[in-house]
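Entry 14. Structure prediction run on the chain below.
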Amino acid sequence: MSKSPRQSSAAEAKPVSELSFEKALAELERVVAQMEGGDLSLEQALAAHKRGLELARFCQGRLEAAQQQVKVLEGEVLKPLAAAADPGDGD
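Output returned:
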């Protein structure tokens, strides 16, 4: 945890698409803490901001996908399909 902002550069960071949601969220929290610390140069702050946006978008996408899965599991998405596929309607 004694890494300086230079040691945890975006160059050594994994591509966002290779991260799990939990790891991306943890990295996003670290980026925010670094930026709030106020010890970053302008270039470091811009790089941190860019990485933070990538992480935030990734996390948001994963949350939206999970929300859709929950809707399916709860039946909100499947109810209209089940009604349309009712064999009792006849042709």
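DSSP finds three helices and no strands in the chain.
Filed with the rest of this week's runs.
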